[in-house]
Every structure is written in structure tokens, then in C-alpha cells.
Amino acid sequence: MMQDLFVKRFSAWAPGIENPKAWDEWAHGSRDMQALSKSPELGFTDPMFRRRLSQISKMTIQVVHDLLPIADDTHMFFLSFRGELSKQFSINQMMIKDKTLMPAAFSLSVFNAPIALASMALGLKGGYTALYPGNNSFMTGLASAAASLEFRNTEEPDKESEIVLIYADEMIPIEYSEVQNENSLPFAFGLLLSKKPSRTEQLALSNNKNISAQDFLKALILNRETHAAS
Q1: H helix count then E strand count, the chain
Q2: Within 10 A of 65 (CB to CB), how many other CB atoms are there?
Q3: What is the DSSP letter of 155?
Q4: Does the pLDDT of residue 148 top 70, yes or no?
Q5: Nearest CA to 49 among 117, 105, 101?
Q6: Residue with the larger pLDDT of the pair 58 and 100
Q7: How far apart are CA 193 and CA 161, in angstroms?
Q8: Under 8 Å CB-to-CB from 213, ≥6 apart: which residues?
């Protein structure tokens, strides 16, 4: 199913790695991801809209924005292993200390909040799916997006169907520092995926379901460089 999956465009954002040159340096091992709570500025959004957004929501909005333009009916797949963790932690504190829960705070803490906010901020109408990948496997989430794209391509074989895949996870609150590891750093990336070849790179995908989101992105960047040089 994923043997003929093509990346038309991709975007990525992490604290301190905010442009293509920096991402190339990271992929080659000369720059590291950092455990920072810094977020993109989102100067293209209204200040009142972005002032209460979490790091994961801001990163998600940024990488979707950087993938534009996309067709009005392009569906988005959002993958995350932690979701709105900082918002959820704040809600837990609120419930413990104040024995109450503010509706506005709850609405921004649900798992699909980042991709829903991206749709709102950018006026996208293709809908979205928010998914926690089974068995803690990024590749399982990618396979789910590929299956949806395969279905869309079967339904409309004469049309070049596309899907946007977004992965994002934010900085883990210090209270959860014991569970941090090399795969828990804050970053996000987006892919515009198609089943039809064009002047893009084909994904060389492994059947290894243990490939992390970081490893996948690194392989994509390095493969892109090889593709451009060939």
C-alpha cells in the first residue's frame, strides 16, 4: 500500500530548527533538537486567537501553513503521542486545587485541538482525522493515512488525490521529566502525500514499525537530497 506513496511537499518546525538549512544540518548530525518550550510566532494569525495556544497547537498551525496551498477538499491526518499534554496537566492541577474546570480550558486540551485550530486559523475545509498511532508506532499512523489515500484514489481514479499528514508533539512538562527520552523532544512536521509520481520523492519505506517520527523525518530529508542530486 505504501510502496507508491509520494511526498509532494513537506515542512517542519522545532525550537531552534526553523528553516530548511537548519533541518539539513540536523539531518546530517551537526545540529541537535532542543528541549525548549519555544513556539513559532504565527504572525499570520490574529493576536487574540493565538495568545492562549499551546506549543503543540502553534507548531501544528505553522507546519500546515507552510504546506499551503492545498486543495479545498484535502483531508488532514494528525498524529501525536502526547497531544495537548501541557493543557491537560494544567486542567489536572485546576481540578485538584480548585475542584472546578473551566470550559474554555477544556476545549483547548482535547486531543484533536491542534489540527482543529489549524483548520480554523487557515480556513481549511477538507476535514481531519486525529489519531494516536497504535502500539506507539509512527509507522502505524503513516499506514493509516496511506490507507485513506488509497481509498480516495480508488473512489476517484481520474483525480490526483492528496492527503496532508501532520505529526506534532510538544515539550513535556518538567513534572513528567522522568518519562522523557530522545523521542520526546518538541517538534512537528507536515507532508503533502500523493499516490501519483511527479517531480517529488518517493518514500522508501521500511516494514520496521519501530521507526520513530524523528528517524522518519531524518530519512526523508536525506533521501530528498539524494533525489535532488540524481
Answers
A1: 8, 6
A2: 18
A3: H
A4: yes
A5: 117
A6: 58
A7: 9
A8: 79, 138, 167, 169, 183, 187, 189
Q: Round to whole Å and give the CA distance between 26 and 33.
A: 8
Tell me which residue has cell 507532508: 191
Q: How many other C-beta atoms can be found within 10 angstroms of the C-beta atom of residue 137?
A: 17
Please report, as a single letter, which amino acid is at residue 42: L
Beta bridge partners of 87: none
End-to-end CA distance of the chain: 26
- Contact between 115 and 130 (Cβ < 8 Å): yes
Secondary-structure class of domain 6-229 per CATH: alpha beta
SS3 label, residue 88? helix
- Residue 217 has φ and ψ, to the nearest 5°, of -65, -40
Model pLDDT for residues 175-213, shown as the tens digit of each residue = 766 666 556 799 999 999 988 776 555 565 555 667 899
Alpha-carbon gap, residue 211 to 213, rounded angstroms: 7
14 DSSP 8-state letter: B
* Contact between residue 44 and residue 65 where contact means Cβ atoms under 8 Å apart: yes
Determine the Cα–Cα distance for residues 194 and 200; give it in Å rounded to an integer.
10
Q: What is the pLDDT of residues 72-110, one digit of tens each?
A: 889 999 999 988 887 776 776 666 776 676 666 667 778
